[in-house]
Design goal:
Elements (H helix, E strand, L loop, with lengths): L1 H14 L6 H26 L1 E12 L1 E2 L3 E2 L6 E5 L3 E7 L2 E7 L5 E6 L8 E11 L16 E7 L5 E2 L1 E3 L3 E2 L4 E3 L2 E3 L14 H20 L8 E5 L4 E2 L9 E2 L3 E5 L3 E8 L1 E2 L3 E2 L4 H15 L18 H18 L3 E6 L5 E7 L13 H12 L15 H10 L10 H11 L4 H10 L28 E3 L5 E8 L15 E7 L4 E9 L2 E8 L2 E6 L8 E6 L5 E10 L2 E8 L1
Parallel strand pairs: 1-13, 1-14, 9-15, 15-19, 16-17, 24-26
Antiparallel strand pairs: 1-4, 1-7, 2-3, 5-6, 5-8, 8-9, 8-11, 8-12, 9-10, 18-19, 20-21, 22-23, 25-32, 26-31, 27-30, 27-32, 28-29, 28-31
Helix pairs in contact: 1-2, 3-4, 3-7, 4-5, 5-6, 6-9, 7-8, 8-9
Length: 568
């Protein structure tokens, strides 16, 4: 009102000034216009209304020996970083914004919202690509979503948590929100909302590291399916909460996109607050969409002698999990109140027995030792690489290698990228039972200090065009902890260099069913897996001149056998 009175007084002076010249009248007209515009600007500013505040989520901290601690004094309130925030009235979204890294947000209220209207602030389990602090790039050109946590049990809806209803009776209001974490034994869509935001927060730490290493990087939109109903089941039916475990992959009958699926069934196995598990699965997303993984998957553990591709993939998942979080510890809780620790690892622990290219434990320890700044009292750990160094090798060397993606190709590529650090890299590898990589195919010692199984004399064997190799063996090592079709002795790699002509590759097994797959730079270009026990498999393919191909022979049924492989 004061501004309006002042404006009227000024207007009166300008309109009734007495006798003036024509030039003076023009000046008065300009002054009148100026004061009018200033009045309008001030009036508009006075009508701007905002709602602001902070959004946090509760996080039950891990305690060694007792799992997750659910008591309120032991729960930490963490910032909901970069999440989507909506101003709603009923089911209508009136405006939206994003939080910053402190969990703070500010929303401009539309002029159509009345002071009598009931409003709520809603936190949504989604991070947009154009966030407050970091402008990520997403391949989602329609909605510009970077990542979202969806409820597979509830029609793929986003998870959300809303404030109490309020009315905006002044120009501003502060609405803070703390999203509760609960051991949700009484399952419903409204409990343990903090779980979805914990998953998002862990993912964001990984996104930030990746974006800092490569400012031109465009991310593939990521869906993460999590529900308090998600329980481990062989049936793998996400709409009913049945998933095989926490994993990255595709359940084609449910959703065509390769996504993260995360366990969440209280008093059984929950992973939403096991940040190491979340970052591990995010590591597989990174391998798949940014780097490259040739892993054949399947069951595994740190004590297994694995197919070298699988060993690298799982060890990479554990190692990159710690690197994303800058924390060498990794735990996986389960059971009543998530009080049991199923897995508890420290990446600082070097492998003292049975290390080698077959060991995911060797891989994760080497990755962490390359990155961390701690020597752990070992003079051989003298190297601290940046995440950008590791990223460069994974994206620009490992991704394009003609070999399989194993620890061998990674270590050799790292030495090629950083030749001045080659000796230090070898020393770190040796600490965890691995020799010196001399090419992407060769290593001086598959397993330092360990008696190697006789099933392989080398990771790769040369298969010359027009020749054959007899008495080749596959063995799943039945009765031991390493038994399985994805283990070290159950697969074989053969290196074939093309000459520009069509060749037939034949594998003739005795006493088992084995399959063959032909790779070029990590992609399967031909395969034969139709035969049964003792039935030969063959591939006919034109092999490009001087191009290296990898023939992968895998045990499919039976526990062991011999075979002959030939090209002609």
């Amino acid at each position: 009102m004061k501004k309006l009175i002042i404006f009227i007084l000024i207007l009166g002076i300008l309109v009734f000034p007495g006798c003036k010249s024509s030039n003076s009248s023009k000046n008065d007209t300009n002054l009148l216009l100026l004061f009018f515009l200033l009045f309008q600007a001030n009036n508009t500013a006075s009508n701007t209304r905002t709602i602001s505040g902070t959004i946090k989520y509760e996080f039950p901290e891990y305690q060694s020996g007792s799992g997750l601690n659910w008591s309120s004094p032991s729960k930490t309130e963490k910032n909901c970083r970069q999440i989507r925030v909506e101003l709603i009235s009923g089911s209508t979204v009136l405006a939206s914004s994003n939080t910053d890294d402190n969990g703070a947000y500010s929303i401009s209220v539309p002029s159509s919202v009345s002071s009598s209207q009931y409003l709520q602030v809603r936190a949504v389990s989604r991070i947009m690509a154009n966030t407050v602090n970091t402008n990520f790039k997403s391949n989602d050109t329609t909605n510009n979503v970077l990542v979202e946590v969806l409820d597979n049990y509830n029609s793929k809806n986003v998870h959300s948590s809303s404030s109490s209803s309020f009315q905006l009776t002044s120009s501003s209001a502060t609405v803070n929100l703390v999203i509760p974490a609960e051991n949700a034994t009484t399952r419903s869509a409204t409990v343990n909302k903090a779980g979805a935001f914990s998953i998002l927060d862990t993912s964001l730490s990984a996104y930030k590291k990746l974006a800092a290493a490569d400012t031109s990087l465009t991310f593939s939109k990521l869906k993460i399916f999590w529900s308090v109903y998600n329980i481990a089941s062989a049936s793998n039916n996400p709409p009913s909460g049945q998933i095989s475990t926490s994993f990255y992959g595709t359940v084609s009958a449910f959703d065509s996109a390769r996504s993260l699926y995360i366990l969440g069934y209280a008093d059984n196995d929950t992973d939403e607050f096991d940040v190491g598990v979340i970052a591990h699965e995010f590591g597989h997303y990174t391998e798949d969409t940014i780097f490259r993984s040739d892993s054949i998957g399947g069951s595994h553990s740190g004590s297994n002698r694995l197919d070298p591709r699988l060993a690298f993939g799982e060890g990479f998942g554990n190692g990159i999990s710690s690197i994303f979080r800058d924390d060498p510890t990794y735990h996986d809780t389960l059971g009543t109140n998530a009080a049991t620790t199923g897995v508890n690892m420290n990446m600082e622990s070097n492998v003292t027995s049975d290390g080698g290219v077959w060991s995911e434990t060797s891989v994760q320890a080497i990755l962490w030792d390359l990155y961390d700044s701690t020597t752990s009292g070992d003079s051989n750990d003298s190297l601290t690489l940046s995440f950008s160094d590791l990223y460069n090798v994974m994206k620009n060397y490992q991704k394009t290698t003609p070999a399989m993606t194993t620890l061998i190709s990674f270590l050799y590529s790292l030495k090629q990228a950083l030749p001045a650090n080659a000796t230090a890299i070898d020393n770190i590898a040796n600490m965890s039972g691995v020799g010196s990589a001399t090419s992407v195919y060769d290593i001086s010692d598959i397993a330092v200090g360990t008696t190697e199984p006789t099933c392989r004399t080398a990771i790769y064997q040369d298969l010359t065009l027009g020749s054959s190799l007899t008495n080749q063996a596959l063995n799943e090592d039945p009765g031991s902890s390493t038994a399985g079709k994805n283990k070290y002795c159950a697969t074989k790699y053969y290196k074939i260099t093309g000459n520009g002509s069509s060749k037939t590759i034949t594998m003739a097994p005795t006493g088992c069913d084995a399959d063959i797959y032909l790779y070029k730079n990590g992609s399967i270009i031909a395969y034969d897996n139709d035969g049964g026990s003792g039935v030969s498999e063959s591939i006919t393919y034109t092999l490009e001149n001087n191009v290296v191909y990898i023939l992968d022979v895998r045990l499919y049924s039976g526990t062991s056998c011999t075979f002959t492989v030939s090209t002609n």
